[in-house]
Structures are given as structure tokens and as C-alpha cells.
Amino acid sequence: MPFTQATARLCGFLFLIVFFAYGGGNALMDALLQSSTPSTGQNGIQAISQYLSALQAGKIQYIVGALLMLANSVAVALLGILFFPLLSKWNSFAGISYVVGRSVEAVFTAVGIVALLAILFLSEEYANYGRYSFAGAEQLSSKEAYFLHLHTLSLLLQKVNYWSYQVGMMALALGSIGFCHVLRAARVVPAPLALMLLAGYVVLLVGAVLECFGIAVGVMCAVPGGLCEIALGMWLLVKGVPASVLHSPVKAV
Fold it and tell me: pTM, whole model, 2 decimals?
């Protein structure tokens, strides 16, 4: 399928979907996942009860958030596919690396979202036993131990999402280096925008690697790349790509 002005504008729209779908979905889900934080004087069992109850009560909000995040996974996969004809025309390695990078990002973020959805099953298990009262005894009853087990599984599933996201971001950053090169060299977009996007992906890669070593800078490092993707999306929506890029003879860059 050739890359056309309509394709360029569709890609611009998808860049905006990627940012707002993942950000909005993550906010909806995180609001419920963070409800597990105990208040002052609250013991661990009470915190678990509050956490699992909040998930069950906010089930619809949680699922909507997950669907938005899954929409992001679909959108990033489509970006890789749609850009491939344009990128491979100018640089075959850039085309392949971008498809691979976006595909890995899509798969790993989707795996993480499925892990978060699995937490709903744990909240349903809690709902089946949630009417039992908890005594703050040092020796846990079998039911209290069961609730601790549910909470541990919930934390494990959140970690699966965390690590899947970091792998996805590293794949995105590495796979987008050639993408940015073609954007600049073929003059698909203004050179400053392509260079800022490249810098944003480099910062994203550094942030994801540091997160793997326990340095919590991932969110901050994702901001520059996210803003540049919004700028790229708006540029493609409004301007499209130059006709010379679509119709000029192929020149390897």
C-alpha cells in the first residue's frame, strides 16, 4: 500500500490517539490501583480489604481504562505498518526497524494491560469472601492469609505491567532512530522537529533503562518524546508531507 497524503494524516491522528489513549487509560486504572495506600494507623489487612473493594467497586472505570490503553497498542502497531512504505522507500533498515520497534511496543504494552486486567479476577475472589471481619491479631487466620495471597498476586501482576512497559519503551526508542533519520534526511518534516523527536526518544530510552535499575525517572523522561509526538501528529494532520517526498525518485538516505 503506497504512502499518500491521506495516510500521512491518518498517522498524525494515530500519534494523538497514542498519547491521549494511553495517558487517559492509565490515569483511570492508576486511580484505583493507588487506592491500596494505607491511611495513618491502618493495618495491612485493612489496606488489602480497601484495595480489593475499590477495584471491585470501580470495575467499569477499570475496564474502560484498560480498553483505552489497548487502543494505544493497536494504534502504535498501525503506525509501524503505515509508515513502512515511506520509510523503506528511503532506507530499508529504517522501515524494518520501525515496524519491529512499534510491534514489540504494541505486544509488550498489551501483555502488561492484560496482566492488569487479571487483577480484576483477584478482586472478584475477594468479593466472594469480603464479608468476613478481620481481627488485628498477630496470627493470621487462613482467610486473612488468603487475602494476603490475593494482594501479593496483584502486586506481581502490576510488576508484569511495569516491566512490559519498560521493554516496550526501549523497543520504541531504538526502533525510532532510523525513523527520525528519514524524517530529517528526506525532509518529511522540518529538520528541527525531526531532531527534537530523536532527542525525545533518546531521553525515553535513558529513562526506561534507569527505571530497570530502580531509578524512578521514567515518567519525567517520557514527557519530551510524548510532546514531540503530539507536535509531529499535529504537523502531519495539518500539513501532511511534501509532494516531493511522495513522488520524487528514490534516494537512499
Answer: 0.86
